[in-house]
Design brief:
With 167 residues, the chain is of the alpha+beta class. It folds into two domains: 2-116, no CATH class; 128-167, no CATH class. Helix content is 23%, strand content 37%. The chain has helices spanning 5-11, 24-28, 106-116, 152-166; strands at 2-4, 13-20, 32-35, 38-47, 50-64, 71-85, 95-97, 102-104. The protein binds zinc ion (ZN) (2 copies). One zinc ion (ZN) binds at residues 131, 133-134, 136, 143, 145. Pfam families: YceD (PF02620). InterPro entries: YceD (IPR003772).
Length: 167
Amino acid sequence: MNIDVERLKEEGELDLAEIVSLPRIAREVVDIESLDDVNVRLHATYHHPYVVVRGELDTVVHYVCARCLAEFARPLSAPFHERYTTDEHKAEDEVRFVGDEMVDVTPELEQAIFLAIDNRPLCKETCQGLCPVCGRDRNVEACGCDVRPIDPRLEALKGLLSDHGSE
Ligand SMILES: [Zn+2]
Ligand SMILES: [Zn+2]
């Protein structure tokens, strides 16, 4: 998605609306299966020598549940707020130098999505996950496996007892 800086300088402000595809998100985040096309609405203003862009991103994220691996979809809205500069001496870490050409804001759109996604997505808060013993989805049926964590002191004792038994 591009912003025409020359036109922005002439008009002072621009409203932009576009549907963009951001495939890098799903490629880089293991918990995301895919991302619907993103509805981007931006308002850009020029205050010499800065291009200020504010807006909102909306999409639907298809996550993979971190506990049970089921796929589920959840809407996502992310705010967008970036500054660019047309003066290379004013460039900083957070303020990219863009000159007078077309600015591709895709890297910052991706960044806004990265900041808004769930880091540990769960299909539901109460998701029971997969059984670590038999692998069955415990949301679907209880399997009855013994998955209680073993007390490390008991574990040591068990070891001693079996050593004794093998003598
Ligand atoms: Zn789940
Ligand atoms: Zn089980």
